[in-house]
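Wait, can you check?
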Amino acid sequence: MTSPTPLTLTALVESILYAAGEPAAVSAIAAALDASAQDIELALDDLATGYAERGVRVQRLGNRVQLVTAPESAERVQRFLGLESQNRLSTAALETLAIIAYRQPVTKPQIEMLRGVNCDGVMATLEARNLIQELGKAESVGHPMRYGVSFEFLQYFGLKGTHDLPTVENLETLPSLEGAPAPPGAPRDADAPEQALLPLGAEAETPSALPTDAGPEASGSDPGTVATP
């Protein structure tokens, strides 16, 4: 009897992501497969390339990755799952999300300084919909909580990662935040406009992707990409 052909590292990584049921840390995948983090990164690149023309994508936030359905298939997937359209985000919520996405980690006082209004209600809404996450307290006076975007944010807007955010070149700039990180893909001294996500949000206010391992209850956010079981 012929022995089965051993799986490649890329195939093994795919199996782990499919079975994980939640975002998996690159370090945990490497430990499970007795591989280096660099080898896992190469395998993830191979997966992403192989999925380019298929119905699954590799979605990443920091050191964690998961498999999700392609944003382009969202309408059909939602119809299959019997999901109803969710309420759209308000302009205020989109503006706040833009600041958090491009400035993370950022505190609520910094967000309010940029928007010029109290953000308690908007922040509560974004937290309730799991679009943002706490990243620990800042070392500044009062130790305010710092915020960043979540996997649900990526799913809502159909992004593979924060590197897919629109660049800020040729866009109106925000007031500077001392010590705030530059937006992805932009020069260190470039700032993102409050409206940076509005064109994207206008197209994706109805969710664009769902995690492939669960239905709408799994993420607690608007369904858009589905994670693989």
